[in-house]
Design a protein that fits this description.
The protein is mainly α. 61% of the residues lie in helices and 3% in strands. It contains 15 helices and two strands. It binds a DNA duplex through α5, α8, α11, α12 and α14.
DNA sequence: TTCCAGGGAGTAT
DNA sequence: ATACTCCATGGA
């Protein structure tokens, strides 16, 4: 393996190369759908992003397409992140807490954040002021840490689950977005009452109670590595529908 | 042009 | 608790 500007310890930790993928695959292989997803994307891992970066990124990611999210985060970094030279090219690091907490609402909106600008600003100020302690989360269980994160403006159940999964390594977290909702309705509907399935298929979004129900299913059905199931199923379904559009 | 996006918060029942 | 509504922007 080859990389520049990082040592092996960092790479191992960031890409969670310490996770026992073989074990996780055995634990998750409960049905044909997850087996197909595991097979198609075998090797995919849950990253360990810095919590701050992960938090802001997923606050920005609400109700936005992936392509638009990339643009938003790129602009945020270009505008507020420290410039880094690597292999003769200019890059920008993700903005620090201090820098974002001092940004103006207009500047943030200029990065295409829209109504998320105020959430990013308020959360940045809380984190920067020390009113929120990321390290404290590591000492909490899943439910408690999730509640603590949800105190932050712009952080609901889904964003909280993403932070717990992609930065704190709580692999039992099972974020439910529109894609995961579709996946559950499509492949796992027999685990729910028909009325619930029909209600969810008719509406675009879903309530907090509905979220907890879908999230609870994922954690109970897939177990301690539910987050890995989410990751594989998410990419499986996205690629499958992308292929479908071509034909 | 219209539609929808890796949701969350505010408000009225 | 639950239902309904608005949110600001950009890619397809």
């Amino acid at each position: 393996m080859e990389f520049v500007g990082a040592d092996e310890t960092f790479i191992t930790r960031y890409f969670s190369l310490d996770h026992d993928l073989q074990l996780i695959g055995r634990e998750l292989g409960k049905d044909v759908h997850i087996k197909a997803a595991l097979s198609d994307f075998w090797g995919l891992r849950i990253v360990r992003q810095p919590p701050w970066e992960c938090l802001i990124s997923f606050i920005c990611a609400t109700y936005k397409s992936v392509a638009a999210i990339r643009q938003m985060l790129l602009k945020l970094s270009e505008k507020f992140g420290e410039k880094v030279m690597l292999e003769g090219c200019d890059f920008h690091a993700f903005p620090t807490q201090e820098r974002l907490s001092k940004a103006s609402l207009r500047e943030l909106e200029g990065c295409g954040l829209g109504y998320r600008a105020k959430y990013v600003l308020e959360t940045s100020r809380l984190v920067c002021a020390g009113s929120f302690d990321f390290d404290g989360l590591r000492r909490m269980g899943y439910a408690e840490a999730k509640d603590a994160l949800r105190e932050l403006p712009g952080v609901g159940a889904k964003v909280a689950d993403c932070v717990l999964l992609f930065s704190l390594g709580m692999l039992e977290a099972f974020p439910v977005d529109v894609w995961v909702k579709r996946i559950i309705l499509k492949y796992y509907s027999e685990h729910f009452p028909a009325g619930f399935v029909e209600k969810l298929s008719c509406q675009k979004g879903f309530s907090d109670a509905d979220y907890e129900r879908l999230n609870g299913f994922g954690r109970k059905y897939f177990g301690a590595y539910a987050g890995y199931a989410q990751e594989y199923l998410y990419h499986y379904e996205r690629l499958r529908t992308a292929k479908l559009k071509k034909d």
